[in-house]
Amino acid sequence: MSIDVKRPLLAVALLASLAACGGQEPVAQARLRVVTPYSVKSLDPIKQGFWASEWGYGELLMRPTERGTVEPWLLASLTRQGESAWTLTLRQGVRFQSGRALDAVALKELMEAHLAQNPAARSALEGAKVAVTGPLAVRLETGEPVANLPSLLADESMFSVFDVASRTFTGPFEVKSLDSQKLVLAKNLDYWGGKARLDGVEVRFVPDGQARTLAVRSGEADLAFYPPTDALRTLKGDARVSIREAALATGQLRGFLNVRKAPLDDSRVRRALSLAVDRKELAETVMDGFYRTPSGVYPEALPYSVKNLRTGLPAAERLLEEAGWRRAADGTRAKDGRPLAITINAYSPQPDTKPVAVAMQAQLAKAGFQVKVAEVPENYAAMRSADGWDVGLSFDGSLSYGFDPVAPLAQMMRTKGPRNLGGIADPGLDQVIDELAGAFEPAERDRLLREAQRIAVEEQAYHLIVVDRVPRVVAGPRYRDYRPSSVLLHLDASTAPCGDSCGS
């Protein structure tokens, strides 16, 4: 059996628009000014390659779409050969910004570089081998079945496409400069997909959320990414800006739980913590309706979704009593003289995590937890340590940006997964994840995903799913019809200002 995925034939392959200004003529000397909290620290295509597709100076082999699917991007087709081999065929005419053609030899080189040096790719495709089979075709031998390969190739963390010799990319923009303050991009005049409508882009790194939105209000920036809820509240009804919303709710705020030490080494305490969190209050009241209340790990529309997230203080208290945590006169709990105390980490690049953590502090106190809220500059860096934290808030979806449920599960919950920050080591869950890798049939995949949710959520509560987030952007007048990407593809060749008539 084979699966053949082919890109529709287009005379000129301009990528799907993220900025809905279709039909407008290119604007002379158009330069987009963006503010974002996240710094591009380097142009290393292995360690920081995910920025390339986000900011339009690089691309991927497969493309996630706003329809919740993936399709070929730099590939012309992807064909499965049996259980553990695939043929990857490149589209013709693609060149790196160095001028070198993206051919089968170049594809083999870049894939082997990722498999050797990129922890995410190495973990997902351990032992994989790449061989050239034609001028534009390679054969990928995975050793074990990898049913989710199309989604892996659409995941920005896996295989950024770059020229190993020159370290250049293929996108409609190329990097002119990068420092600690900003990234400056210019139009790639030899872009394979046609002429970019923007002449350049300046991406400034501004950690403060209010400062980002004020930059748009004052006309110093055109787009502000990751606006905090406090800023969005103040912008309601402001004619100087538009709040633009993505098509899909792909973001998810979760708490990584540190299961390596007490008290969260006990599944009863973890389950009690989850029951004591009122997600509806967090989404609708604390965050003023800018977030959504999750009913499960995955969106309800998906066939494998299970509605298993509940709030119930009495049930939480019963579990804590069962685990030996007794109430003191002041309402807090202790066991063998040790208080039921935890630390929740918020992180400054995502300012919404702080009010959520403070609200959780009050909610958990009703069950007897003593909660300290800490704010760290980098969430992952803080959680790499086994000490100093118990709950680490982070925007990490259960679906990859290639709409894959398997890779995030393997990365965050499989023993020794690259993002298993809480120290989960569960042989039963590992077995389910391993079986998912070879589940090509949808019914079997769905069954295994439901079993994974039973173990990870209902039985063990390894992660705390908090609220769901729809990506939003604050836009100035010239970009008031800009559509934020649900899948982090912020710019492409069609991105452009809309002019005075746009949105009218």
UniProtKB/TrEMBL annotation:
Stored InterPro entries: Peptide/Ni-bd, SBP_5, SBP_5_dom
Keywords noted in UniProt: Signal
Signal sequence interval, chain numbering: 1-22
Solute-binding protein family domain sequence ranges: 69-414
Pfam family, one: SBP_bac_5
PROSITE patterns documented for this protein: PROKAR_LIPOPROTEIN (PS51257)
Protein name: ABC transporter substrate-binding protein
Source species of the chain: Nonomuraea roseola
